[in-house]
Write a structure and sequence with these properties.
It is a single chain. With 193 residues, the protein is α/β, with parallel strands linked by helices. It contains seven helices and eight strands. A six-stranded parallel sheet has the order 5-4-3-6-7-8, sandwiched between helices. α1 crosses α7.
């Protein structure tokens, strides 16, 4: 029920197998409450801040993760953004990831940190896993991932470069293209059974 995000019910008899002798029946109903999908943005640099602010007013709950106080506490960030100053690896370990409601984007200040987090996130159920960078960065990362025993199927889960390619390179233009890509995926998912 939790994996599929759907409600269900089941029943079982209160007999010998359950250590009971009354002969009754217990019926359990699990109601999967639909919550807002969550976007986890790892990195509160210029693009991360622009993306978090651009997603304001959309169906997403926005989580911005960065340990650098001067970036995560920036005055330009909207108050609705959930700011997390913990170690990104700790955040990944503590989140209850859901394949229909979890989106993750890597855009930290460090290529090595992006790579390390990518390896951790590949093991999580996600709707979307995006890595900021050029085609050259992706070729280097994919080669390393294959050398580290990740499969081609796992690599196919990664979107890099991110966003809808329309040519803009400013932080705000990248944020708009990535937001459009995320919203398209979200609305397509809402239409599918």
């Amino acid at each position: 029920c939790l994996e599929e995000g759907q409600s269900s019910s089941f029943s079982f008899s209160l007999g010998v197998k359950t250590g009971q002798c009354c002969g009754g029946v217990v019926e359990v109903f699990i109601d999967s409450v639909i919550t807002r999908p969550r976007v986890y943005i790892f990195g509160a640099g210029h693009v991360g801040q622009a993306l978090a602010n651009t997603l304001k007013g959309t169906p997403f709950s926005i989580h911005l993760i960065d340990q650098r106080n001067e970036w995560i506490d920036h005055e330009s960030l909207y108050s609705e953004i959930i700011k997390d100053k913990r170690c990104p690896k700790e955040v990944i370990q503590s989140v209850n990831w859901h394949k229909r409601k979890s989106y993750a984007l890597l855009m930290t200040h460090s290529h090595q940190l992006d790579y390390d987090l990518l390896g951790l996130l590949l093991k999580r159920p996600l709707t979307y896993l995006g890595l900021i960078g050029s085609q050259t960065k992706w070729l280097r990362f994919s080669k390393r991932l294959l050398e580290d025993d990740f499969s081609k199927e796992e690599l196919a889960k990664i979107t890099c470069p991110i966003g809808i390619p329309f040519g803009g390179k400013s932080p705000q233009e990248i944020a708009i293209s990535v937001s459009a890509q995320l919203l398209k995926l979200y609305h397509q998912d809402q239409e599918s059974p």
